[in-house]
Automatic annotation (TrEMBL):
UniProt xrefs under PANTHER family: UVRABC SYSTEM PROTEIN C, UVRC/OXIDOREDUCTASE
GO molecular function, one term: endonuclease activity
Superkingdom of the source species: Bacteria
InterPro entries (alphabetical): GIY-YIG_endonuc, GIY-YIG_endonuc_sf, GIY-YIG_UvrC_Cho, UCP026568_excinuclease, UvrABC_protein_C
Protein name, per record: Nucleotide excision repair endonuclease
SUPFAM superfamilies registered for this protein in UniProt: GIY-YIG endonuclease (SSF82771)
Pfam name, any one: GIY-YIG
SMART domains in the record: GIYc
């Protein structure tokens, strides 16, 4: 059996109730997420339930795209996101493995691709 250990998040940002600064759906700390490195990201709701897992070569633009894009699987659930966790993973194959593993072991609510459970 293969043992996979999910990396500890390098950055966690949380939605603010009444943000005073410029924000996207209550998040003001996107600057903490690297613009140039790759990794995986996880969206959680206020109850800590995993909503969505994704991967990217460049994390910040990809995460922001989920809050702006009209074709994102999260487009109808953006308000539900309360916490974003980011793990830096430079290797593309490792990102793919982690994403698939997390989707299926933690049963991400809004992921539709790579789902192997019913």
């Amino acid at each position: 059996m293969i043992q996979i250990t999910v990396p500890t998040p390098d950055v966690t940002i949380t939605k603010q109730e009444n943000p005073q600064l410029s924000h996207i759906y209550g998040f003001t700390d996107f600057h903490l997420i690297t613009r140039e490195k790759g990794g995986i990201f996880m969206f959680y709701n206020a109850n800590g339930e995993l909503l969505f897992v994704g991967k990217a070569r460049k994390l910040r633009p990809r995460i922001k795209k989920h809050f702006e894009d009209t074709v994102s699987p999260m487009k109808n659930h953006r308000e539900e996101v309360a916490t974003i966790e980011v793990c830096l993973v430079e290797d593309a194959v490792d990102r793919e493995i982690y994403e698939t593993y997390i989707i299926n072991t933690m049963r991400a609510k809004y992921n539709v691709d790579k789902v192997f459970y019913n």
